[in-house]
Amino acid sequence: MLRHTYSVFIFFILLAFLFFTKASVLLYVLLIVAFLAITSWGAFDIRLNYFSTNICRSNNKKDKEIAITFDDGPHEKTIEILDLLSKYNAKATFFCIGKQIEKYPKTVERIIAEGHNIGNHSYSHSNWNGFFSTKKIASEIEHTKELIAQLVHKKTRIYRPPFGVTNPNISRAISRTNQVVIGWNVRSLDTVIESEVLIFERIKKRIKPGSIILLHDTSAKTVWVLEQLLLFLQSEGYKTKTIEELLDIQAYEITNNNQFVQANINK
Ligand SMILES: [Zn+2]
């Protein structure tokens, strides 16, 4: 059972307790505020698995293997990112936005041709995604999946919700479209922090075997950070893997017999 279901259950038990013990209004207010605070935390922190089951790292903590993931592309900077990955013989995973795929179709083809994974990151990446209906979120997932399939003949089944936000509608859309949600456990904050050095130091401190690192292939800053990161990983003996390799899951639908291969998410 998801954590959201538990907390709703506990909320109603406590509400009933307050009602039967004729508690003061203040206690009702405190309970509601606490419930709303927990729900918002659950919506914004993908690692909590509050509304959906999200994979945020590999359970293999022995091998020095990690996954680098890029959100919000393809973008003009993705070419430089791909050049660097190729120079250091590294593999990564790109969670692409449908609208961006329409602008940079050749980049999508190159991502696949060079052995990286492609995931779905919605069609519009709207700031209002958290308020969309289940139907709207599912149709964005399907639309982006179709755009990717038209270019590279692969139907991706790995999804990262915009901003890492989850809620009941997003969770329903994910199960309706058979997606596996991939989160992260190392957040670079590369779209927030100005200094490249600080971003790199932040990532370096947090890397452990099995980590999934979140970056964005949308700025020159990230290109610089990536090169430092790849040099660091090389010197520490880390291998970079795609999400498919790191988690030992199927990133794409098996289309030749029209069957899904279920991800072994317990690995
Ligand atoms: Zn994003």
UniProtKB/TrEMBL annotation:
Pfam families from the UniProt entry? Polysacc_deac_1
- The reply to whether Acyltransferase figures as a keyword in the UniProt entry is no
Q: Which parts of the chain span the membrane according to its record?
A: 6-38
Q: Which CDD domains match?
A: CE4_NodB_like_6s_7s (cd10917)
Sequence ranges assigned to domain NodB homology in this UniProt record: 64-241
UniProt-listed InterPro entries? Glyco_hydro/deAcase_b/a-brl, NODB_dom, Polysacc_deacetylase_ArnD
At the top level, the lineage of the source is Bacteria
PROSITE patterns attached here? NODB
- Annotated keywords: Membrane, Transmembrane, Transmembrane helix
Q: Name the PANTHER family on file.
A: GLYCOSYL TRANSFERASE-RELATED, POLYSACCHARIDE DEACETYLASE YHEN-RELATED
Query: What is the recorded name of this protein?
Result: Polysaccharide deacetylase family protein
Species the sequence originates in: Flavobacterium bernardetii
